[in-house]
């Protein structure tokens, strides 16, 4: 007889392991299936290790510019690339062990292997040795995550044309790199490698870098990246990569005609696709649309007893989105009252390059297209005492309010540590806070976060520090 559970979660990323823990907290007998390391891509190959790489890059930048802070560092400063990579992997390993501890603490069974869902609320798990074991649950949550998208014209060979996982484990720092795509993955790795001395070129198909962001943010990041020597080509497309030589010859179609670039390595960072192949969806009859599993506001698929959360379903492909979906899904399964669907228009987005980017809600363009009359305010960090003292005057805070009712429509930040500031706006929007209320909210001085109030004052024509 198959092992039976109340809940089985397929995948242990920030959606899967959170779902498992919440299910256990609610008294459900729970198991999680994972084919690699606990924590999924986020903890092992995404969110966490990339932040470790970025921190090393930022520390190196501090050392190179220590004289700006009145500190002299004698001798030549060098980045030990192998040591930087080793530190990043150590941080990731430590976080994965933390998830192992949480599984034991919450009495969750961890099943190692590849899970394939079957009709009748069953799952076959194939272990590393090929042995197949069947499990059964009242509720099956699919949280298999995503992987790097491959462009038809740019096949990834893992050697000269790489994706983010390989970019985190290169044995040697390349002298030159071309990055395809300027989303979060692309611009973060561009900064890491550029700061360590690699000549970086970014190719973006759309008109602006970080194209999901407000246009003012995109322009500011492009300006800051060009200052540190990163070349950027927008409205451009890689048509071919020739890897027959010692490096890569990259052919790019630009608004000014075709250009070729000779680089050591190409990083393909053209987005993420869902891991939904060969996991049994067709056999069970679970509906799929445009590469995503179809689900409702509580992540129920069209087949009773099967659910989907995270990158495999609707919503932004972000770790915190997967975790939020996990809790909503499990609390609905457990029958908790008043489970509220997720508001996808109030999801913060963070990009951890330097300067950092953080945003939530409408861009100015989207708000105008939605028919709002706006009050828009900007406050530059050049006018912030804390930012100037920190030697980080780059960037600004931009806030957008509905002129009629004061609704906080959106906020867009670029600067040092702004990813630590955005939650204030998320909470304010959740609580339906107005611009007038932000004006009356006392912010501590000197802080970076007081720029939110300063930008709001600018929006309402009451700027004190501008």
UniProtKB/TrEMBL annotation:
Subcellular location per the Swiss-Prot or TrEMBL entry: Cytoplasm
Enzyme Commission (EC) number: 1.8.1.4
A Pfam family matched in the record: Pyr_redox_dim
Residues holding FAD: 51, 115, 311
InterPro entries reported in the protein's UniProt record: Class-I_Pyr_Nuc-Dis_Oxidored (IPR050151), FAD/NAD-bd_sf (IPR036188), FAD/NAD-binding_dom (IPR023753), FAD/NAD-linked_Rdtase_dimer_sf (IPR016156), Lipoamide_DH (IPR006258), Pyr_nuc-diS_OxRdtase (IPR001100), Pyr_nucl-diS_OxRdtase_dimer (IPR004099), Pyr_OxRdtase_I_AS (IPR012999)
Every FAD/NAD(P)-binding domain range: 5-326
GO MF annotations in UniProt: dihydrolipoyl dehydrogenase (NADH) activity; flavin adenine dinucleotide binding
GO BP terms: 2-oxoglutarate metabolic process
First and last residue of the signal peptide: none
Superkingdom assignment: Bacteria
Gene Ontology cellular component annotations, sorted alphabetically: cytoplasm
Paired cysteines (S-S): 42-47
Active site: 445 (proton acceptor)
Keywords: Cytoplasm, Disulfide bond, FAD, Flavoprotein, NAD, Nucleotide-binding, Oxidoreductase, Redox-active center
Catalytic activity: N(6)-[(R)-dihydrolipoyl]-L-lysyl-[protein] + NAD(+) = N(6)-[(R)-lipoyl]-L-lysyl-[protein] + NADH + H(+)
Names of the cofactor(s): FAD
Domain Pyridine nucleotide-disulphide oxidoreductase dimerisation: 347-455
Cofactor: how and how many bound: Binds 1 FAD per subunit.
NCBIfam families per record: lipoamide_DH
PANTHER family: DIHYDROLIPOYL DEHYDROGENASE, DISULFIDE OXIDOREDUCTASE
Record-stated family: Belongs to the class-I pyridine nucleotide-disulfide oxidoreductase family.
Additional comment: The active site is a redox-active disulfide bond.
Protein name: Dihydrolipoyl dehydrogenase
Lineage, opening ranks: Bacteria, Pseudomonadati, Bacteroidota, Cytophagia, Cytophagales
Gene this protein is translated from: lpdA
